[in-house]
């Protein structure tokens, strides 16, 4: 009887050798596409099923390919990656999106979350482990950088999520738990999910779930849906 090597991946997680996590890559930089594609193809747990270099090609690829996670650049030659996240969420609502960008910008990060992204990676950084980010979001977690973690901490510590008036006191269910703050501070200090899990005696998957809960407490997705509803109904 054939058994998967234990070092590959626990059996209960998405990304098994017989059923890898399927990835769609959208980036207008040919060199960057090659770099990311090579990383994805080198990991048996991820499978690159399609590539695109523009918003137009991206829309076509989203319709054409069955995939679990989309890696998408923010700045494409014919438009913004945000457009594809919104389109993906309406076309393939179960798929996850990870933004890859040359720089981090608060407003861009919040807008990406608003549209349903669960990951944000900076190109050419030490954190650019693309298969790991894909596996995190495919298993219910979220991918986050230390810089972004620090900025999110500042927002929560000041009682402002960045999408509501600064004077508003967060509701009880919006506040971070002590464990969530602990996880976020460790991410901000540069620890990986695995290292945080070892130190807190929890699994890396649980760490990523805490991070996704932190994203959810920004409530940006709910707000975006409310704004869209109001716009469609002519209430704005």
Word description of this protein:
This protein is an alpha/beta fold. It is built from ten helices and seven strands. A five-stranded parallel beta sheet has the order 2-1-3-6-7, sandwiched between helices. It has a two-stranded antiparallel sheet with strand order 4-5. Helix 8 crosses helix 9. The longest helix has 13 residues.
List the helices and strands and how they pair.
Layout: E1 21-26, H1 30-42, E2 46-52, H2 55-64, E3 69-73, E4 75-76, E5 79-80, H3 81-91, E6 96-101, H4 106-114, E7 119-122, H5 130-138, H6 146-157, H7 178-188, H8 193-200, H9 204-216, H10 220-232
Parallel strand pairs: 1-2, 1-3, 3-6, 6-7
Antiparallel strand pairs: 4-5
Q: What is the H/E order?
A: EHEHEEEHEHEHHHHHH
Number of strand elements = 7
Largest sheet features:
5 strands, parallel
- The value of Rg in angstroms is 18 Å
Task: Please state the overall shape, judged from the principal axes of the Cα atoms.
Answer: globular
Helix content: 40-55%
Q: What structural class is derived from the secondary structure elements?
A: alpha/beta
Which regions are unreliable across 5 or more consecutive residues at pLDDT < 50?
Answer: 161-169
């Amino acid at each position: 009887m054939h058994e998967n090597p234990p070092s590959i991946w626990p059996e209960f997680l998405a990304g098994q050798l017989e059923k890898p996590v399927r990835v769609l890559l959208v980036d207008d930089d040919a060199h960057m596409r090659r770099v990311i594609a090579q990383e994805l193809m080198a990991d048996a747990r991820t499978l690159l099923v399609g590539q695109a270099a523009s918003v137009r090609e991206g829309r076509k690829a989203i319709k054409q390919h069955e995939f679990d996670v989309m890696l998408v650049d923010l700045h494409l030659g014919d438009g913004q990656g945000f457009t594809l996240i919104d389109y993906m969420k309406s076309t393939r609502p179960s798929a996850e999106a990870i933004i890859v960008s040359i720089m981090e910008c608060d407003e861009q990060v919040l807008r990406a979350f608003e549209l349903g992204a669960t990951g944000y990676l900076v190109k050419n950084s030490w954190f650019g482990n693309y298969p790991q980010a894909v596996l995190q979001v495919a298993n219910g977690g979220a991918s986050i950088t230390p810089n972004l973690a620090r900025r999110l901490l500042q927002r929560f510590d000041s009682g402002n999520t960045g999408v509501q008036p600064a004077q508003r006191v967060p509701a009880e269910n919006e506040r971070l738990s002590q464990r969530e703050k602990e996880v976020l501070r460790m991410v901000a200090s540069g620890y990986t999910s695995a290292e945080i899990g070892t130190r807190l005696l929890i699994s890396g998957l649980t760490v990523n779930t805490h991070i996704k809960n932190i994203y959810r407490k920004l409530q940006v997705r709910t707000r975006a849906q409310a704004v869209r509803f109001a716009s469609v109904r002519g209430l704005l």
